[in-house]
């Protein structure tokens, strides 16, 4: 609210209420970041338990059933509830600043997207305490999932349905924001690469999540109402789930990796202190990867017997993706080439990312060759491959960007020294864990096994792999310690923390006021802040309008209420097949809460409020001292 | 910030231009509507005429495709080049159509019972 921005100290209750009701993209970005980190830690812990189990042969640290739950929850949580929200965190915090907008296009939906994701995730994790987590792998293949006893799979289906709706809403929000909310002069071909990749990745969300929703819905009715979509004995077909899942699942990989590419395309030019090499080819490659990402899903299913023709088509299409990805890699290298490189922590992550991701890409092309895939399928080679892509590509991007964007998001800088330690420990741990798994796979160790017999030549490699996992865990703990220490450090109150910022987000002095720009900036070219800096503009931007009243959205508790409604309804749906008498009333109650909140939202006009010029000036003076943001 | 709504009276010229424009637009709408009715009639006709199923199925699908495009471009205003972000909208519509078609093709060709 307008007056709240000027007042400084707030009580705990008021702060909590502020975060529960906020529609501010910067606060939601922070919430996504912390929720994502929480689930990242949980899923990482699950991974650690699995690696401890596999450290020595014939181990009985966890039981086979628990191991299945751990591997399922690790995969599901990492992809849906850790990587996605962490990237959404950066998209929320940075994209509106990069395009010169005051907020996203639909601030209310932004908040709704977060709460749906969070409560869906919470619902999924409650399965641990309510009779067992899902245990059919993150892919949840129907032939396994339909016969899984207990409620694990139901938690998976309902939890992902809710959090998937949140992701879809956020994706649509970002498409609209990037297309319609750009500042004057910010043409498509002047958009920073992170904005471009966010746009393409949001478009992929728009097209990829509906198949998942359909698949989950079919799974839901199969399990709860004994429909037979996936039951071959009743005329269904289990392969349909695999297709629906991978039509979603393959683009999902690109949904995650494209923003990661974008983040590195921001980091590298800043620290190479050179304009991004081949900007237009980067944009083109992003679009091409997005398009091809939809045409290759069946390469996950080569061994289901699609036939030689289908396998050949999907193999060639998959290999084609290496071309635009290669373009990107060469562009990054050419950006660094001849630059005056400053090796900061974000740049370290970028330098570590390039070879790691290329290694993941190369093994990907190996698997794209269908005949070889028959050898590699369901072995540790696959596990090594996708961890190289996801950890080497996405996690390094997230960690690097945390260091890179922390000054903008929190007005504090993460410790460089601790960051360097984190990087090396994590990076060495990562390669130690996964490089050797390629060979375990080639030696025939199948994935998703809870233990193995001694003396098959796997003992030493598994031991080394587990040591690597412990190193990675230490790295993550160091990062968390770094975050906690930084919270106590002095605020920066500066503009362009790294000194070589190029795009618009660096032109704003931190802390960023809640309305972002006191006047909408005018963008005169690619890398607008760099442009203004070089022309000696001390303010970092020129303005497209005079100082005036700013129209901002009101906070609202309704998104949380709506999400709680679906959360309650999910419990009703979950326990209905058990014949519990309260199941249907709870289901109806939950839906009533959601629909009621929607009706309130529709009936009550919420036109937002205006921040008047005097308030803007007062806020600026409060934040930056006399003279405001100069 | 331009939050004040400006009301401007139309000039005589503007009024006549709009009138002419609307008339042209209406004529187009009616013609398209007639084409739609005709295509629907054709679809019914081939069924009633009891042709071979191998003729009826592709013809009906073809007519359906034509109608979808007509619907999108004339009644849902995708032919309105001046509307904001029409390029983006077309891209998204056709990209979605291509993806949906791939899935349709998949379910017909490489899923078997």
UniProtKB/TrEMBL annotation, chain A:
InterPro entries: Cyt_c_oxase-like_su1_dom, Cyt_c_oxase-like_su1_sf, Cyt_C_Oxase_1, Cyt_c_Oxase_su1_BS. Pfam families: COX1 (PF00115). Keywords: Electron transport, Heme, Iron, Membrane, Metal-binding, Respiratory chain, Transmembrane, Transmembrane helix, Transport. It is a multi-pass membrane protein. The chain crosses the membrane at residues 30-50, 70-91, 112-133, 153-181, 193-220, 240-264, 276-298, 304-327, 348-370, 382-406, 418-440, 460-485, 557-575, 581-600. PANTHER family: CYTOCHROME C OXIDASE SUBUNIT 1. Belongs to the heme-copper respiratory oxidase family. This is Cytochrome c oxidase subunit I. It comes from Ureibacillus aquaedulcis.
TrEMBL record, chain B:
Signal peptide: none annotated. Its main location: membrane. The keyword Hydrolase does not apply. The chain crosses the membrane at residues 30-49, 55-76, 88-112. It is found in: Cell membrane. It comes from the Bacteria. The keyword Transmembrane applies. Keywords: Cell membrane, Membrane, Transmembrane, Transmembrane helix. Pfam families: COX4_pro. InterPro entries: Cyt_c_oxidase_su4_prok. It is a multi-pass membrane protein. This is Cytochrome C oxidase subunit IV family protein. It comes from Ureibacillus aquaedulcis.
């Amino acid at each position: 609210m307008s007056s709240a921005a000027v007042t400084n100290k707030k009580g705990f209750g008021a702060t909590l209420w502020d975060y529960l009701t906020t529609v501010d993209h910067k606060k939601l970005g922070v919430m996504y970041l912390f929720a994502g980190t929480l689930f990242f830690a949980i899923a990482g812990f699950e991974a650690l338990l699995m690696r401890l189990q596999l450290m020595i042969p014939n181990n009985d640290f966890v039981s086979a059933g628990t191991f299945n739950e751990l591997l399922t929850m690790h995969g599901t949580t990492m992809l849906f509830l850790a990587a996605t929200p962490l990237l959404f965190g950066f998209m929320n915090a940075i994209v509106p600043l990069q395009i010169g907008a005051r907020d996203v296009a639909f601030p209310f939906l932004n908040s709704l997207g977060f709460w749906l994701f969070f409560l869906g995730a919470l619902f999924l994790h409650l399965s641990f305490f309510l009779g067992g987590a899902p245990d059919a792998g993150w892919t949840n293949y129907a032939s396994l999932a339909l016969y899984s006893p207990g409620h694990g799979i139901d938690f998976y289906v309902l939890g992902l349905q809710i959090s998937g709706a949140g992701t879809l809403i956020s994706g649509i929000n970002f498409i609209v924001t990037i297309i319609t909310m750009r500042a004057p002069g910010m043409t498509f071909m002047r958009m920073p690469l992170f904005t471009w990749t966010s746009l393409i990745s949001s478009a992929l969300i728009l097209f990829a999540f509906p198949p998942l929703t359909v698949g989950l819905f079919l799974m839901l009715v199969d399990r709860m109402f004994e429909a037979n979509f996936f039951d071959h004995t009743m005329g269904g077909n289990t392969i349909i789930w695999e297709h629906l899942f991978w039509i979603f699942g393959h683009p999902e990989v690109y949904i995650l990796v494209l923003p990661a590419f974008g983040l590195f395309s921001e980091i590298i030019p800043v620290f190479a202190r050179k304009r991004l090499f081949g900007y237009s080819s980067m944009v083109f490659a992003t679009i091409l990867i997005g398009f091809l990402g939809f045409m290759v899903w069946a390469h996950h299913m080569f061994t289901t017997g699609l036939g030689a023709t289908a396998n050949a088509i999907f193999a060639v299409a998959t290999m084609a993706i290496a071309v635009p990805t290669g373009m990107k890699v060469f562009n990054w290298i050419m950006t660094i080439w001849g630059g005056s490189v400053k090796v900061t922590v974000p740049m370290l992550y970028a330098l570590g990312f390039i070879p790691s991701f290329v290694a993941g890409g190369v093994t990907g092309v190996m698997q794209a060759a269908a005949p070889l895939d028959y050898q590699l399928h369901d072995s540790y080679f696959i596990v090594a491959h996708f961890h190289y892509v996801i950890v080497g590509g996405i996690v390094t991007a997230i960690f690097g960007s945390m260091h890179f964007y922390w000054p903008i998001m929190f007005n504090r800088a993460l410790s460089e020294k601790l960051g360097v330690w984190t990087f090396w420990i994590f990076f060495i741990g990562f390669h130690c864990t996964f490089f050797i798994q390629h060979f375990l796979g080639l030696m025939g160790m199948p994935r998703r096994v809870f233990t193995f017999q001694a003396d098959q030549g796997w003992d030493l490699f598994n031991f080394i792999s587990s040591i690597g996992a412990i190193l990675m865990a230490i790295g993550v703990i160091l990062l968390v310690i770094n975050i906690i220490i930084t919270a106590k450090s002095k605020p920066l109150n500066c503009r362009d923390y790294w000194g070589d910022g190029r795009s618009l987000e660096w032109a704003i002095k931190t802390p960023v006021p809640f309305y972002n720009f006191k006047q909408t900036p005018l963008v005169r070219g690619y890398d607008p802040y760099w442009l203004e800096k070089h022309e000696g503009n001390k303010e970092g931007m020129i303005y497209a309008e005079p100082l005036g009243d700013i129209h901002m959205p009101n906070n609202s508790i309704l998104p949380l209420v709506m999400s709680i409604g679906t959360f309650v309804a999910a419990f009703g749906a979950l326990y209905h097949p058990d014949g519990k008498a309260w199941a249907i009333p709870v289901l109806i109650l939950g839906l009533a809460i959601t629909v009621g909140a929607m009706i309130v939202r529709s009936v009550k006009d919420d036109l937002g409020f205006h921040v008047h010029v005097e308030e803007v000036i007062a806020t600026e003076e409060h934040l930056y001292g006399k003279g405001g943001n100069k | 910030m331009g939050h004040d709504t400006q009301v401007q009276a139309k000039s005589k010229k503007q009024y006549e231009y709009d009138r002419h424009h609307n008339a042209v637009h209406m004529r187009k709408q009616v013609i398209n509507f007639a084409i739609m009715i005709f295509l629907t009639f054709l679809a019914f006709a081939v069924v009633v005429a009891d042709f071979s199923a191998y003729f009826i199925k592709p013809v009906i699908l073809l007519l359906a495709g034509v109608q979808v495009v007509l619907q999108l471009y004339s009644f849902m205003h995708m032919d309105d080049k001046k509307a904001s972000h029409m390029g983006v909208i077309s891209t998204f519509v056709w990209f979605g159509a291509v993806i949906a078609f791939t899935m349709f093709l998949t379910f017909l060709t490489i899923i078997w019972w």
